[in-house]
Structures are given as C-alpha cells and as structure tokens.
Design goal:
The structure is a homodimer of 155-residue chains.
Chain A lengths: L1 E10 L11 E9 L4 E8 L2 E8 L5 E8 L2 H11 L5 E10 L2 E8 L7 E6 L13 E4 L10 H4 L7
Antiparallel strand pairs in A: 1-5, 1-8, 1-9, 2-3, 2-6, 3-4, 4-5, 6-7, 7-8
C-alpha cells in the first residue's frame, strides 16, 4: 500500500494552459463509495486499477495494479458508473514538485482543478500564481463524486 | 473476459460432508452492487480480485486478477464491506462436472449451497442426490448479498 497525500486547488486564471502537454485521461468507478473507491483509468497506452481507502485529512491509502487495456476499455464502456470522467491532464513542474492540472470534459466541462502530491502532510510548498482557492476537503470535487453530481449540474 | 454460467442449489441432506477436502475461503466485497461486483478472495496461498458484471439468466461476465497476499489481507480486514464471508468449500466430482459445496461460517453459519459451473446455459447435467432446491435466481443467496443480509438474520 502507498499513502497518497494530496492537496487540491481551483485555478485563479488561465496561465497554466501554456504549460505542460495535455494528456487525455479516461476514468471510471466500479465503486465510488468513499470508504472503498475502485477506479479504472486509461492514460495513453497504460491502463490501471486503483483502490483507495477513506480520506483522513489529506491522506488516503492507495493500491495500484496494471490492467489489460482490453479489460479496462470494457469496464469503462459497460461496467463503470456512468458517465465516466474524461479530462486533459497537464503535469507542470513548480517549486520542486509536479502540479497536475486537470481540465474536465463532458458533463464536467468548465471545471479545472490543480493537485499537488506531497511526501507528508506538513510538507511546505510554494503555490504557482494560477493556483486559487484550496478545495482539498470539499467532497464535491472528488472525481468519484463528479460522476453522480457533475460540475454542469452544480448551478 | 470470461463468461460464468452457474447453477446453484440448496442441499437436501448431509452426504456431501464425507466427499471432498474442505478448504477455507475468505472473501469480501469492495463493491457488492449487482451491476459491478468487486470481490477479494483468499484461498490457501492464493489471493485474487474478481470483477463480475450483472447476471443475465445464469450467466455473467467475470474477470480475475491475482493480488499480492498482503494487499488482499488488508482489503479483507480493513476495506471490504463488513462482515466478510468465510466458508469451507468442498470440490466434489460428479457426472463429469465439479460441484462446489460451500458451508458458510460466522453470520451465515447454517447455510450450505452447492454450485455447478457449466460450459453453456443449456448444458444437461445430472444432480447428485444431496442436491436439493435450485436457488440460482434467488438474489438472497448471492454471496455479495449475504454481507448485508446474512443467513442468520433471515428468520
């Protein structure tokens, strides 16, 4: 098991757009239950299943296993809770860490979220100027929550 | 993907007890949703994750992946829906097929179910005399359903 420690922010403006190469991520959930998330993700030629335990603070347990691409595609198309999540991810190096900026598509179009993964909960880090309000603890922004309550239905 | 075609029966009497060697199975669910079951199982020194799609008739899609034993044990103890399912399984050859007789423990003690896996839905097969009423289509007997509604709570 790994421990994932992640902080999540909205973006304040669009300067992230010119940084990093956008990569399409398609992901869906066999379980979106907060206690035991089971996520299927395809990124380029790589498919993985990720199990996540419940959040405590900004940390959660995370286990990852490779999946055959054919199985992952079938899970996303037929088995996962619908709609699946599609987003462009940009990986942007800043201040010694990698920021991941996710630009959502489909039912979540308009939503952009920036995440940073940290080695410990009290690690200090600098924020790029395009990083806005922190939403780490706002469950609406969990990707697993964006299936049942997509961003386009919030307003 | 494999297709699993399975028929399920209660047992009429105890003659199965003297046949086959009982092996302990511990299994739990990361998802018990009928549309997308995610099962973790430990049998002896082998641990697997199995994804099952929704039943249509006696058939369902099934995908199986090996798991590290340490991860499987942690899932069963901490992550899966509680209580987990524990049962002794006996594999009994009869009429050219293998019958699996599951004797449940814990909250499902008293329940014994016999299953046969078939190559197609219309395959003919002989029943051993200890095979009783068929319960293939009774959802209460789904292992995933026995977590939330264990046999001991039925009466």
């Amino acid at each position: 098991m790994g421990i994932e420690i992640e902080r999540k922010f909205l973006v304040a403006h669009d300067a992230w757009r010119s940084q990093g190469e956008p990569v399409l991520l398609r992901q869906g959930y066999l379980s979106s239950h907060p206690e035991r998330v089971v996520r299927v993700r395809i990124e380029g030629s790589r498919a993985v299943m990720t199990i996540k335990s419940k959040n405590t603070g900004a940390s959660r347990g995370e286990w990852e296993y490779p999946l055959p691409m054919e199985d992952a595609a079938e899970f996303l198309d037929k088995l996962c809770e619908q709609p699946i999540i599609e987003k462009y991810r940009r990986r942007i190096p800043f201040g010694g860490f990698t920021w991941e900026v996710d630009e959502f598509l489909g039912a979540n179009a308009g939503l952009v979220v920036a995440e940073i993964e940290l080695p410990s909960e009290d690690t200090q880090f600098d924020k790029p100027d395009w990083a806005g309000e922190e939403v780490t603890h706002d469950r609406r922004y969990y990707n697993s929550a964006l299936v049942a309550q997509p961003f386009s239905k919030w307003r």
